Amino acid sequence: MRPRLIWRTARLREARVETGTARTLVFEVPGWPGHAAGQHVDVRLTADDGYTAQRSYSLAAPADGELLELTVETVPDGEVSPYLTEVMRPGDEVEIRGPVGGWFVWRPASKAPVLLVAGGSGIVPLMAMIRERRRAASRVPFRLVYSLRAPESRYYAEELRRPEPGLDVTYLYTRATPDGVSRPAGRILLADLAEGGWPAGFEPDCYVCGPTGFVEAAADLLLALGHAPERIRTERFGPTGG
Fold first, then answer.
1. What order of strands is seen across the sheet that includes strand 40-46?
2. Which CATH code, of 3.40.50.10490, 2.30.30.90, 3.30.200.20, 3.40.50.80, is assigned to 114-237?
3. Do the domains 114-237 and 7-100 match in fold?
4. Would you list the DSSP string of 71-133?
5. Measured CA angle at 121 (ends 20, 3), to 5 deg
6. I need a labelling partner for 50 at 20 to 30 A (CA). Which of 57, 139, 162, 182 fits?
7. Residue 240 pLDDT grade (very low, low, confident, very high; cuts 50, 70, 90)
8. Does 193 score more than 60 pLDDT?
9. The pTM of the whole model exceeds 0.85
10. Got the DSSP string for the chain?
11. What is the predicted pLDDT for the residue at 2?
């Protein structure tokens, strides 16, 4: 039986700007049991009058003792994300429950090649997998296909820019492209995954995360390329109120 999840007090230790609307938050959570790359947590805020609001956020980094890392995108008029991205300061506290999820995870013991397909902020749990690979000194080859609106929307830009043996990164832009990019702006296509991903014959484990429409489209393209359904794992999100 899985242990019962409980709410724990999380104190903000550090905050980093990722984009104009996204922030990475490092929390210290006494008693944190650890987690796997790809899992998520619930975050709860409680107002002075007792009103509570909670949202789920993917973990952005592998387990590190009692520290955990989230990257949060501001949702306009949201109840939780604006506080996390615009108001919260080091030393402030929230409640966190988790880790949640056990299927959309990557573990270093796996030897299959990995294809990560991210849409927008769907990069967050996939980045945890990339960082877990690095932490474990795994030699499993990774390929990341990262679809986003424009260059300024890139999460973890500096980190992903640094060369890393065994990790190949392909960017796709849907609204505006940087100078020197020949692919026109547009949605993800079969050719994008054929070129940036692995051949189906290599039997890679595929992880797809992003908005519901993106995830459904990308999964259908992977199936069309011959990837086995049981090797395609998806995590999707939609409007939640933030």
1. 52-58, 40-46, 93-100, 7-17, 22-28, 67-73
2. 3.40.50.80
3. no
4. EEE--TT-SSHHIIIII--TT-EEEEEEEE-SSS-B-TT--S-EEEEEEGGGHHHHHHHHHHH
5. 125
6. 57
7. low
8. yes
9. yes
10. -PPPP-EEEEEEEEEEE-SSSEEEEEEE-TT-----BT-EEEEEEE-TTS-EEEEEEEB-S--BTTEEEEEEE--TT-SSHHIIIII--TT-EEEEEEEE-SSS-B-TT--S-EEEEEEGGGHHHHHHHHHHHHHTT----EEEEEEESSGGG-TTHHHHHS--TTEEEEEEESS---TT--SPS----HHHHHHHS--GGG--EEEEEEEHHHHHHHHHHHHHTT--GGGEEEEEE-----
11. 62
| Domain spans, the chain | 7-100, 114-237
**pLDDT above 90: percentage of residues in the chain:** 95
CATH code of the domain made up of 7-100: 2.40.30.10
Sign of the CA dihedral with 96 first, then 101, 107, and 109 last: positive
Interval 95-110: pLDDT, tens: 999 999 999 999 999 9
Distances from the Cα of 147 to the Cαs of 8, 55, 224, in angstroms?
Answer: 34, 24, 19
In the structure, what pLDDT confidence band is assigned to residue 4 with cuts at 50, 70 and 90? confident
